[in-house]
Amino acid sequence: xxxxxxxxxxxxxxxxxxxxxxxxxxxxxxxxxxxxxxxxxxxxxxxxxxxxxxxxxxxxxxxxxxxxxxxxxxxxxxxxxxxxxxxxxxxxxxxxxxxxxxxxxxxxxxxxxxxxxxxxxxxxxxxxxxxxxxxxxxxxxxxxxxxxxxxxxxxxxxxxxxxxxxxxxxxxxxxxxxxxxxxxxxxxxxxxxxxxxxxxxxxxxxxxxxxxxxxxxxxxxxxx
Length: 224
What we know:
alpha/beta, Rossmann fold, 8 helices
């Protein structure tokens, strides 16, 4: 079984890919360079695919900086030191339609290589309120795939697997550690320092720190 895995180099996508691999899928990893300021994740993605031994790693460059609308693709301020659980509204780190774009690319590659499964590490519990991380979005895109592709109108069904969507960050980490994943390979920070070190204060860093603490495990990135 072939599966396209949207692999960012972050903790979640690494875990989702490993889960899919443990379930028997042959992994075709897709990493998108979209003009994000946290480009250190691209090198993290390369480390992760080497560790997983994927069938193929495809990197695509689609620069979303020209569109703007997000502090991850512009000079806007990345939120820091927020209580993410108590925060309301969609933060400035939301990238307009990013997961729609990413899934469209994954769908195109899946159809080209005769795969019917896509895996992504979206999460609807410990996340920052992004609309394209919700189950409603995933179901809607699956429906779209059935009418937007040649094989779809021929009766084939594309499935989007979201093994982490209902898990807490701590549960995600526990699952990954049970699969013997090295989270020192990953990168989560939205606004890393010049040398790539995590800032420790953005939403992603805070969620990661909370997850490791609740999982009772040490973050290998912090230990370095």
